[in-house]
Write a structure and sequence with these properties.
It is a single chain. The chain has helices at residues 3-11, 16-44. It is an all-alpha fold and 52 residues long.
């Protein structure tokens, strides 16, 4: 996340919650979706253990 965005939010007096939802969460979304793309195939190919 760009430090300049955090500095700007701080300069405008944004609360920590506002900074979280307006800057930090959107900047983390690409990494989150990349991790989901990596994890999803391993989840769907796991063996089913329901048959006792």
């Amino acid at each position: 996340m760009p430090a300049s965005a955090l500095d700007l939010m701080h300069a405008y007096g944004a609360s920590p919650t506002t900074t979280l939802w307006r800057v930090q969460v959107p900047s983390a979304l690409p990494a989150l979706f990349a991790a989901m793309r990596v994890a999803a195939p391993s989840h769907w190919s796991a063996p089913c253990s329901r048959n006792g």
